[in-house]
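User: My instructor asked us to take a sequence, write out its structure as tokens, and then describe one feature of it. I'm not sure where to start. Here is the sequence I was given:
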Amino acid sequence: MDQPLVTVFIPLYNCEEYISEALESVINQTYSNIEVVIVDDGSTDNSVNIVNSYTDPRIRLIKNEINRGIPYTRNLGLEKSQGKYMAIMDSDDIAYLTRIEKQVNYMENNSNIDGIGTYYEIFGGRFKKVMRPKNITSEEIKAGLLFLNRIANPTSFLRLETINKYELRYNPEYFVAQDYDMWIQLSKVGELSILPEVLLKYRTGHTNVTKKSKSSKIIQRKKINDSIHRDILDFYNFDLTEVELRVFNEFFNDNYQSEISDSTLDHLPRLLTKMVEQNRHNKLFKEELFSEIIRDTVLVVLNRRKINLSRKLRVYNEVCKVKSVRSITRDLSYMVPKHIYNFLLL
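Assistant: Let's start with the prediction itself. The structure tokens for your sequence are:
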């Protein structure tokens, strides 16, 4: 079998400080049968000159004459890709040198899988941390996508035959969370997985477009996330009232600095009970798995939100109780120091 050609796609915008390190990590991969498609979205710094200084023939630079935004840029990357697979990476991140080789091998050996992510290391801020998502099978990821994004976009590896067959594209109206929406659209027609190895270093601690969008466009960001949630809930035929949908969207909101009302916390256990019952009736996901996904996701959100500790513990216990899932001592023992840690960082 011929080695499959892999397109490594890197969207670029004003990243002169980091693009060389990112690019070096790609062109020095142990898997060499790649093309590197860099789409510059109207950079005004020295980023383009840095890319042009490389003579590697596998690099293709495409320039938007003006800043068109990340959805347009990602869709252009899909359009220009010539590979069997697309590996996505941000211009400020660093790929482990075996990343492409291991992702190619995984996809070649699992022809039923259409998109994967990996574990990854967060660096660049005050602390380093390795992120190892608990839910890595297709059913786990699909169930989890109902609530939050489950795959880190810079670790993405996509089977382009599936993407093109179903004409999947990033929503041009979504200036944020377009990757979350793409995973959901792909989950409707294909299978997903996470390769349980750390294969990327994800940079934080510097100013970027995502951070700016969180601070300046919070209302619009929430509307986009609400729209994504409504789409996937409708796809699986979860029948929620407008009040229940408001509770769902307020709690499972990725802006963790926002407040959660007492009313939402009061209604949450009843809402999730209803979803468990509808899941059972519609035979969507395995019952035990769905309950565990809910418990784990609620725990993650509670740990990240500004909520009184006693309130967190009460809500978590109520969710576990109504789900017929026993509160796990380990989870509760983690929640308390996590709450104290977050409080000290404020």
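For the description part of your assignment, you could build on this observation: Residues 236-345 form one domain. Try explaining in your own words what that tells you about the chain.
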